[in-house]
Amino acid sequence: MGKKSPRVGLISFGALEDKVPLILSPLVLSAGVTLTLYKNYVNPEAHGGGLLRAVHSVLQKKELTGIVFDLRVSNWPDVHSLIRARNLSRSLQNICDNLKINSSVFVTNAHQPLGNAVGTPLELLEAAEVLKGNGPFDLTKFVLEVGTDLLLLTKKFKQKSKSKKFLKDNILEGKSVVIPKYLSEDFPRTISVREKMRISSRQKGYVRHISMKILFRIKSELVSSLSGNGFTLLRKIGDRVEKEDHLVEVFPSKGQHMHPLELDILEAFFISPNPPDFQPLILERSEIRMQS
């Protein structure tokens, strides 16, 4: 009987989208690594003290070589948010130490979604584009960084530079990634013939801020994996917009009232005469913790 491939996991806290594991799964599989666990605690604060117990229970049921945690900080650069993230990071890695699981933690900036698509079919399409080397820069960058750690945690690669080069070659040159059927079949492409609406800016300037709280609410009103609802951001933080430029493309539910939804989206985008300060995607990255 052949040796089992190393098994890894990814747990996110506060992610609006779920496309990262869709990309990582075939990407790390090309190196002989299986992504066997993904979980997203959308509202981690709602779990209170039970969050760590829940994570411990999930990890205890899996036979993992390594896991990466993605902690989204929504109030950057609020120092208290970073302190809470660091405390959670240490607690999560302590759990992994006790369970003999290799681990690393990313503290990421949740000032806007990764990539542009929100909603299952739209995210499937975007995931396929990343694997073809045509995806959004921020999403591609994040996948490469997380994927690099996942491979290092399994000891498939000893050096970060070689691990990242392997993944880059796969994405940019398509050397050995096999795009799964669930990313290429007809289901996600049915959205192209659905009713859609583009919502335009009422002023010109720069996108200075996007309210993730409002986007979460919009997603809950829109998204259904069966009917293909969701939205795509056409402008993101730092982008210059003119009056009537499109901000978001929406795929609504049948019979959905669009006026309230349009008002929500316009409220989510803060347009300023001045461009925003630079906002890093990855705020902090823990040292990879390997078990003996």
What does this structure look like?
Helices cover 38% and strands 22% of the residues. The mean pLDDT is 89. It has 2 domains: 7-183, Nucleoside phosphorylase/phosphoribosyltransferase catalytic domain (Pyrimidine Nucleoside Phosphorylase, Chain A, domain 2, 3-Layer(aba) Sandwich), CATH 3.40.1030.10; 194-272, Pyrimidine nucleoside phosphorylase-like, C-terminal domain (Aldehyde Oxidoreductase, domain 3, Alpha-Beta Complex), CATH 3.90.1170.30. Helix 1 (19-29) runs parallel beside helix 4 (120-131), helix 2 runs parallel beside helix 3 (79-99) and helix 8 (212-222) packs antiparallel against helix 9 (258-268). It has helices at 19-29, 50-60, 79-99, 120-131, 137-153, 160-173, 181-184, 212-222, 258-268, and strands at residues 7-13, 34-41, 66-73, 102-109, 117-118, 197-200, 205-210, 230-233, 240-241, 246-251, 269-272, 282-285. With 292 residues, it is of the alpha/beta class.
Task: Write a short abstract of this structure.
With 292 residues, this protein is of the alpha/beta class. It is built from 9 helices and 12 strands. Helix 1 packs parallel to helix 4 and helix 1 crosses helix 5.
Question: In terms of topology, how is this protein built?
Answer:
Blueprint: E1 7-13, H1 19-29, E2 34-41, H2 50-60, E3 66-73, H3 79-99, E4 102-109, E5 117-118, H4 120-131, H5 137-153, H6 160-173, H7 181-184, E6 197-200, E7 205-210, H8 212-222, E8 230-233, E9 240-241, E10 246-251, H9 258-268, E11 269-272, E12 282-285
Parallel strand pairs: 1-2, 1-3, 3-4
Antiparallel strand pairs: 4-12, 5-8, 6-10, 7-9, 7-11, 8-10
Helix pairs in contact: 1-4, 1-5, 2-3, 5-6, 8-9
